[in-house]
Design goal:
Layout: E1 4-7, E2 11-12, E3 18-24, E4 33-39, E5 46-52, E6 57-59, E7 67-72, E8 77-82, E9 91-99, E10 102-105, E11 109-113
Parallel strand pairs: 2-11
Antiparallel strand pairs: 1-3, 3-8, 4-5, 4-9, 5-6, 7-8, 9-10, 9-11
């Protein structure tokens, strides 16, 4: 059973930076793509950033220029570097991996942006 485990969420001040990690239990190259999503209280889950394993990245317009999705093949880990965080970005952040047309989700990690 493939598992994705997120980590790195914590309390951060507005304007601060944070790096989230998503550790996969299978080789990254066995996945077609990865994505980071977030769900704020009372809101629907939204896409933040996606990465095609052999190709490109995409970002939500609200995070473009501030967030970066990347991968470490040796560690089977996908990262989300978040800079200049805003209070409205407080949410549970989820990692999703698509592998052989099946979507796998992690359980999420909480990011709180507050002073």
């Amino acid at each position: 059973q493939v598992q994705l485990v997120e980590s790195g969420g914590c309390l951060v001040q507005p304007g601060g930076s944070l790096r989230l990690s998503c550790a996969a239990s299978a080789s990254i190259f066995s996945f077609n793509s990865f994505g980071w999503y977030r769900q704020a209280p009372g809101k629907e889950r939204e896409m933040v950033a996606t990465l095609i394993v052999y190709g490109s990245t995409q970002y939500a317009s609200s995070v473009k220029g501030r967030f970066t999705i990347s991968r470490d093949v040796a560690k089977n880990t996908v990262y989300l570097q978040m800079n200049n965080l805003k209070p409205e970005e407080t949410a549970v952040y989820y990692c999703k991996g698509r592998r052989y047309d099946v979507d796998y989700w992690g359980k999420g990690t909480l990011v709180t942006v507050s002073s």
